[in-house]
């Protein structure tokens, strides 16, 4: 039986030499461990003599502290001693803000977002929700889907619906892949493992980010071995390090690689800069740590310095030497670059050794349009998809084009598929759902599946193979589609 320790007693151990922390209502003496804390001693001292649960859970497994030989369990926090002063000592970014509604009250991605806004830590909310400068690209991602109208066909016996599809060689129950969003543990201790388990259980895709908060090995080991993970790579300035990662993930059984090409530098995300980044937020696969500097606390800016901004089309040959699997370029934002990607494959100059068909990922998962997170006023992927449909429909037929950015409803998924996408990637909504752990992500997938099924029935189709552009009215966006291709685009189109 653990002894009860009052908040006053905990508070009296608040110095580097005598440092107690409360984690999940247990009181620990971390004085001996603090100087060796891999995330830095500063973060521990910030919570010295107080409750560090929220900050701890953002980056550590619940079990971690129990395995450390240099920490000592003192007792159990006496709940009768917890008063408002104790609870309100910090209003820091790491403190959970309020209670969230129960999961069964969540009906949509918007409900998940509202709950996340209120209950994620300020840093987690700032990191996931932020987007570049004036948020024009970010907001347009969603609003562009709203400018497309359905054209339902009726009286078509829609009693049995099939939402199954194949994406990059894998069979999924929905045309949905979870986007490679960094640092899932900021949302919940389950982190990427929780996302992976939910995806494997519901049979949708998951692209593990190189910026994950767990090493790839741990994420992959958390689900049955036949689940077909994808992996996202930012090419490292230290190419040998990227080569090592490619070998590592190949050994782990991954055969589909998404290389992000839209982020030689991350965008300016002011909301993320405004909230202090904890020293202890680290990315085990990139080896970088978030920090606060003179410009602010932006996680992407401070951890993203490893990304190689010299990367060019010529480097695809290097990539091919080190990656024999399927390759997806993530972040294409123009017909011209989509054609260059296909061209690379077709006349085999750059990607000669490719044993599998390449694919193009038109990306807008927040802001490059990368979720609107990189270049503000960059085009929503939906617009790029429309441009591909107008100028080079063969790219949509011959490669698998995936789109992301702004997908919040089953109707959005259906619109993208009608316009020629093979599948959609979903980023932020998953992180907001992960606020409820693995179960939250499962619930999100169920919500989207059911919305997609209803949308298919109401539009008059029973199988995704029947989705086609006649089922949508894109008139409101058509005038935004470029008329002429530039910079050799028309030459490429003629050649292909
Ligand atoms: C993003 O936030 O948009 C990312 O792509 C993630 C990221 C995080 C940290 C460093 C580089 C990229």
UniProtKB/TrEMBL annotation:
It is found in: Mitochondrion intermembrane space. Its cofactor is heme b; FMN. Its main location: mitochondrion. It comes from the Eukaryota. Pfam families: Cyt-b5, FMN_dh. CDD domains: FCB2_FMN. It catalyses: (S)-lactate + 2 Fe(III)-[cytochrome c] = 2 Fe(II)-[cytochrome c] + pyruvate + 2 H(+). Coiled coil: none annotated. Keywords: Flavoprotein, FMN, Heme, Iron, Metal-binding, Mitochondrion, Oxidoreductase. It is an enzyme of class 1 (oxidoreductase). Residues 101-477 form the FMN hydroxy acid dehydrogenase domain. InterPro entries: Aldolase_TIM (IPR013785), Cyt_B5-like_heme/steroid-bd (IPR001199), Cyt_B5-like_heme/steroid_sf (IPR036400), FMN-dep_DH (IPR000262), FMN_HAD (IPR037396), L-MDH/L-LDH_FMN-bd (IPR037458). GO terms for cellular component: mitochondrial intermembrane space. The keyword Repressor does not apply. Residues 2-78 form the Cytochrome b5 heme-binding domain. Its EC number is 1.1.2.3. GO terms for molecular function: L-lactate dehydrogenase (cytochrome) activity; metal ion binding. In the N-terminal section; belongs to the cytochrome b5 family. Homotetramer. This is L-lactate dehydrogenase (cytochrome).
